[in-house]
Q: What sequence folds into this?
């Protein structure tokens, strides 16, 4: 018997990742915008400011392209480049991360399963359908369509209401400390941080559990002590 009444997951970079050829996508964006390419994708990503804004992805990408253009001495319309990037991207090109299917199976054996994503339904539904998530989970909340997204409590409250469970009996699994762990804490859920690197530190956040892979979730749900990992001090 699981210690949790329900388990819920973040979507992007927790259950799935984009399955694009990023270099090809980057070049196609310049071609679509009619701009001579400059820079590389690996240069663009660090110039993006925090997590993507689900309500203004073009503005979010445009700010990154503006910074990249300035570094390369190019005079371009960064918004046009961002719009071109969005036009050639395919939201259905996603794949499950390692351990995700097993993690979903273990969660379903423990109780109701939910997904809470900060993106709006118009963008995220393509991913959900491509992954067949609708057949694997009991509720999906698209926080991008709510007045406030993670880490605000409202999105998590919608989730637990949809699953008909109490927040304190629900485990939320996500890769972001500032959105997933902080949001779960604010709403009274238990949190499991899926860290990308074993050397990553949780401080100053305090997730209830730390996972290095969703393969570890089954043991955590089954109450096996070795599956628990203390948050970094």
A:
């Amino acid at each position: 018997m699981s210690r949790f009444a329900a388990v819920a997951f973040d979507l992007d970079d927790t259950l799935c990742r984009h399955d694009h050829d990023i270099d090809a996508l980057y070049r196609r964006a310049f071609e679509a915008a009619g701009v001579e390419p400059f820079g590389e994708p690996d240069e663009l990503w660090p110039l993006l400011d925090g997590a993507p804004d689900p309500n203004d992805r073009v503005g979010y990408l445009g700010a990154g392209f503006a910074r990249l253009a300035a570094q390369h001495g190019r005079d371009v319309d960064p918004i046009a480049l961002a719009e071109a990037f969005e036009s050639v991207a395919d939201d259905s090109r996603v794949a499950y991360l390692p351990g995700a299917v097993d993690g979903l199976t273990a969660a379903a054996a423990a109780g109701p399963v939910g997904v809470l994503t900060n993106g709006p339904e118009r963008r995220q539904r393509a991913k959900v359908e491509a992954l067949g998530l609708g057949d694997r989970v009991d509720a999906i909340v698209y926080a991008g369509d709510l007045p406030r997204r993670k880490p605000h409590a409202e999105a998590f409250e919608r989730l637990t209401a949809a699953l008909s469970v109490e927040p304190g009996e629900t485990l939320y699994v996500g890769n972001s400390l500032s959105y997933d762990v902080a949001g779960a804490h604010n709403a009274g859920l238990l949190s499991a941080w899926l860290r990308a690197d074993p050397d990553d530190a949780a401080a100053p956040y305090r997730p209830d559990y730390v996972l290095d892979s969703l393969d570890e979730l089954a043991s955590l749900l089954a109450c096996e002590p070795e599956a628990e990992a203390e948050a970094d001090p």
